[in-house]
Amino acid sequence: MGHQQGAYFVPTKSYWPIVAAVVMFVTVFGAAHWLNAPPGEAGFGKTMLTIGILGVLLMFFGWFHSVIRESLAGSYNAQVDRSFRMGMMWFIFSEVMFFGAFFGALFYARTLSVPWLAGEGHGLLTHQFIWNDYNGSWGAGGGGGPEAIGGRFSTIGPWGLPLLNTLILLTSSVTITIAHHALNAGHRGKILVFLGLTVLLGATFLNFQAHEYMEAYKELNLTLHSGVYGSTFFMLTGFHGLHVTLGTIMLAVIWFRVLKGHFSKEHQFGFEAVAWYWHFVDVVWLGLFMFVYIL
């Protein structure tokens, strides 16, 4: 289980980091093979991806079960709590950098590459010798080129499902904040109600996003093959949807832990960590709504 060295809890050697490395490798390998395989030949990649995802879920369940068991046993003191908080802060910072890279790619493609290819600024020679029929538009029609590969497509307007999903996530930030205040006040029934509402709002967001993707593919012909617009759209919204999925699962786990009485005003880092993560996901969506759907 572990032992104390001075005032700091030191766990025993764990095999979970090795399991994490293996299943994450399998997941990425399967996803890469699936995305790069010729049409109709992606069975191996999809199988590997499925095995990897199931392995990742098993790893999370087992590893966090060990951490929760150690926490409930009273093994963690204030210094360990600070270590967990710093670790979560650095994790969220890494997520900021993760999405920052994708927003940077969107900015570069839309603000620099597209005008250069159209002959603006320093791109006159680029336009003349590389793509002299490119008109430099962004969005509908593919900008004078991608429609020749994936067909003409239409964009998704911001005032339908995207706006509704924005309101859903903003509401979920309010409900989880209310649940946090209820935890500090010791009102477990109120925690369960508002935390449960947060889980339902997250699941509703994912349902609407899945509906939006089906509409994009079937009715608007907006796919991953729709030039740089399609690739950046699905890259940003898809990874955000993945984060909402993970956040919703974590919120559901926290709900069951609250039901079992695991948290108190003095010991609530697990709840706080998930709340921080959820607020981060909400802020990222506001950026997506502004720069992907509106502008």
Instruction: From the alpha carbons, calculate the radius of gyration and give it in angstroms.
Output: 23 Å
Give the name of the CATH superfamily of the largest domain: Cytochrome c oxidase, subunit III, four-helix bundle
- Major sheet size, sense and barrel closure: 2 strands, antiparallel
The portion of residues forming beta strands comes to: under 5%
Task: Compute the number of structural domains.
Answer: 2
Give the CATH architecture of the largest domain. Up-down Bundle
Portion of residues within helices: over 70%
Query: Can you write the helix and strand succession as a string?
Result: EEHHHHHHHHH
User: What does the overall shape look like?
Assistant: globular
CATH topology heading of the largest domain: Four Helix Bundle (Hemerythrin (Met), subunit A)
